Amino acid sequence: MRAPRTGARRRHAPAEDSLSAVPNRRPGRRPGNPDTRVAVLAAARAAFAERGFDGATIRAIATAAGVDPALVHHYFGSKDQLFLAAIEAPVDPAHLIPEVLAADRDELGGAVVGLLLKVWDGPMRPAGLALVRSAVANEWTAKLLREFLVTQVLRRVLATLDLPRAERDARGALVASQLIGLVMGRYVLQVEPLSSAAPEWLVAAIGPTVQRYLTGDVPLP
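RE: above sequence
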């Protein structure tokens, strides 16, 4: 009878749950199971629309999607990145806001308008228009677009002004009304001369109004 080989190792294929990391995988973020990513993004959209950016948590989103919170972080990184993926944002404001914040306090309004025009007049316009048009027709998308504008853009600008929370929110809402009106008039409805005006003219015309909303004397609720 043949003696068993000593030192031989039984080879087993590593068991892998579709929602867990594979052992000995090379470093780097993996693409992930498409069905899992779809489930996480759907849960994220629902959470952000229902509870807002601040109220939604990675843990609650993971629970709704039926996955571990660590997997959500592994696929998407931070809550900010998950939010941007969920709404299919055409741009990450974190890459652009420093350009605005580099302006002097008295020139923030013009810098905000200039940045908006720079983004919308560039190659990201089709994706931005798709998001805005979807928001007009869909209540949930409208809520997500509002959260994007308020939490990802305006909050970062207003945070530099050291204002009380209530005043910061009120001023942010006024600025948002101006920016949304500009986007709708110039890019969606294409109202003339807004639609064909040079960006410099729009910055000069609208920037002071945004500046007043940011730092000027305005009646607040």
